[in-house]
Amino acid sequence: MAVDRLLVIGAGPAGIEAARGAADLGTEVLLVEATGELGGTPYHHYATLTPHLKETHEAMYPMLEGIKAHPGIDVRYNARVTKSQGQAGDFQVTLVGENGQETQESVGAIVVATGFQHFDPGRETQLYGYYEFEDVITLVDAEHMMKTGKIVRPSNGEPPERVAFIQCVGSRDRQIGNRWCSKVCCGVASKQSIEVKRLLPNAKVFIFYIDMRMYGFWEDQLYWKAQEEHKVNYVRGIVTEILKKGDKLLMKGEDTTMGRPVEVLMDLVILSVGMEPSRGTVEMAQVFGMPFEDHGFLATVGEPLDTVSTPVPGVFVAGAAAGPKDIEDSVSMGGSAAVKAVGLLNRLKRSSA
Amino acid sequence: MAQKATPIELEVAVVNGVELNGHWNRIFEPRVISEYDLSVLDEVTAIPGAESLAFCYQCGKCTSVCPVEEAGGDYSPRKVFRRTQLGASLFESPDLWLCTTCSDCLRVCPKEVNMIEIMPAVRERAVMDGNAPAELLSAFENTARYGNPLGEPARKRQEWSKHAGVSVPIMNQHKSPVDVLWFVECYPAYHPRGKEASVALARILHQLQVDFGILGNEEKCSGDSQRMAGESGLFEMLAEDNIKSLSQYEFKTLLVTDPHALNAFLHEYPKYGGEWPTYHYTQFLAPMIDEMDLSQAIERRVTFHDPCYLGRHNGEYEAPRTLLRSIPGIDLVEMGRCRENSYCCGGGGGGMWMDSFTSERVNERLSERRVREAVEYGADILAVTCPYEVSRFEDAVKNTGNAGQLKVLDIAELLAHSMGLVTANI
Q: B2 in contact with A at a CB cutoff of 8 Å?
């Protein structure tokens, strides 16, 4: 007898949409979240959402409240999945709560939506000095500052006059082992450049890039908008290293459209760190015996036409656990995973009836 | 403080006419970019009309169609943006004067960086500061003083009509309405080869029994190229004078010889209250082709140079071709760059009056590049229909060693020849 209950692991945009979708289709949902809050990485770290620059908590409020109020969804906070036994239609899953107490849960199918973590710039092969220079920060640090409504140089608390974004930090790099484009950083950096200009209209803002990758509507919603309306300066050529010069940062690289070396001073450098599989994503691969694809994210079968089925029957994946995704793609995958999982449970129910 | 670099990207340096190729050109200026001084870009893009310079995302599509780049100039709109972004003063740069406003870059620009608006706006500021090539300033001065950039006496503007051999009514003597008022323009009124085309056109109009008249000495330069070269004040003055003169008379249609005048009358004069149905002479004549007795064959291979301001700027590609195809004997061949991607003769945007300035900064004149193309296509005759072109291309034919091989003739001359009204040097 198949268990008509779906386990969704991770309450970011993908997991939330998967849980809501399955519950709306009439399947009982157990939503397990490792932290004490719904919303995932964007909710925890991002001041505004790309591409429309809406305040994140305000924008996600209806989505989160919908989950909390849904009678078909049982949310477990501060819980991690540590073990799984059984097969599609009949999994016995072990959850470990905040205080280490274990509970057993029976579920028929699973959606893994454990997302990504930001690249640690201490690992980059260039010499950007993230752990050395206070005024070298990441996109995430910048978001945290923006949540407080200001942008300053951490070294002295003063607003920066010259701000540079460096793209592709931890992405597209064979030496680091991350051969992928993280998809969202060009858009997020452009979004942040607009926010910097809104907060500091007189600041000179530069984005140093190898290729600008502005998928779909982000091209004019972010890139053109930043360049044309907010006078953000896009310079093709990536930065090789950052040195300290007085109380400023000396950026060295090449301006490739001019074919000349660059050595310019900046007050604040923001590293556009890319995506890597999160700790939870790696753990879930072990728990459910799911293989990784070439880049170390969760493998799916049947791409590009099936984006959510993993090689393990009954286990589906949604969002950035399967590779770099923006929020739109994550939410779409969440819906797709819900339909696939509920469909499987319905088939199992019919065949065992 | 960081040293301010002077941006430079010399692939080819020309010193006293001698090409000095090699990477060592770059040592003349600091190689390292040590400052992105955005103050110039801010200053330039704050000028109304010049905002779109900052829209450039460096795709480089403009570079391959830019006629100045093609002629060996170290120039393209992409470079103009980058140099400005690097802090080079566009107001003091040769870049500001190399653009011929041919509009081919705008045709291909995905971001609609509009050099047709940027150039006049930025040039205006430079002209006010006295930072313009002397020869251009002298053309402005001539235009202001004599009503024409050639510096010819205003009272001789209608003199050509005495040699037309047919009646060319001058409006202030004619004293009655006409169907067509012919705005002759400066080069057709003063330049020896321009006058020959004017005589040809006068005879055609006469033969077709068109009821026409000209302003004669009351006419002044339409001023469109002066406007594009940065003298909008002068342009306004000319527009007001011409509108005042034209408004004295009754006519149904305005006929222009010059595509630059066409551009002014279609897009600029209406802003000053001067609005008339306006046609380039090829547009006016094309529907009347059946009424023309084109009996004399011209057994020549002919290619046609689309003027930037008739084609790209105003969308007329067919009328000149309709006329040429109607002339018996003509074998019309198209050059590789024709119609929308037609090459520029170099005369637009003030280029007509900056020949020394420009030719020092390109490997060959744009007109010479174009003449070589016509020769490559085996043309005997390069047909033109913009008054800047006859003189430019005839000089280019000599400079490229093609004298005797390629003739440059206005479409009016070819038509009149075929109608037996003139004997053109075919």
A: yes
Parent domain of B403: 289-418
- Segment (H or E) for A338: helix A327-352
Residues of A in contact with B34 (CB under 8 A): 263-264
Q: Is the pTM of this model over 0.80?
A: yes
First and final C-alpha spacing in chain A: 8
Nearest-CA residue of chain B relative to A225? B55
Give the one of A204, A212, A258 whose C-beta lies nearest to B33's C-beta.
A258
Q: Check whether residue B316 and residue B260 sit in a common domain.
A: no
State the DSSP string of B359-400.
HTTSSS-HHHHHHHHHHHTT-SEEEE-SHHHHHHHHHHHHHT
Q: pLDDT tens across B235-289, in order?
A: 999 999 999 999 999 999 999 999 999 999 999 999 999 999 999 999 999 999 9
The answer to the question of residue B224 being in a domain is: yes
Question: How many other C-beta atoms are found inside a 10 Å radius of the C-beta of residue B402?
Answer: 17
- pLDDT surpasses 90 at B2: no
**Same domain flag for B36 and B152:** no
Q: B280 and B166: one domain?
A: yes
SS3 A83: strand
Residues B274 and B353 in one domain: no
In chain B, what residues touch A235 (CB-CB under 8 Å)? 36, 85
Residues 229-248 of A with CB under 8 A from B: 231, 233-236
Q: What is the 3-state secondary structure (H, E, C) of B10-44?
A: CCEEEECCEEEECHHHHHHCCCCECCCCCHHHHHH
Q: Give me the amino acid identity at A334.
A: G
**Residue B137 within a domain:** no
CATH 3.50.50.60 is held by the domain A119-274: yes
CATH 2.70.70.10 fits A5-115+278-352, yes or no: no
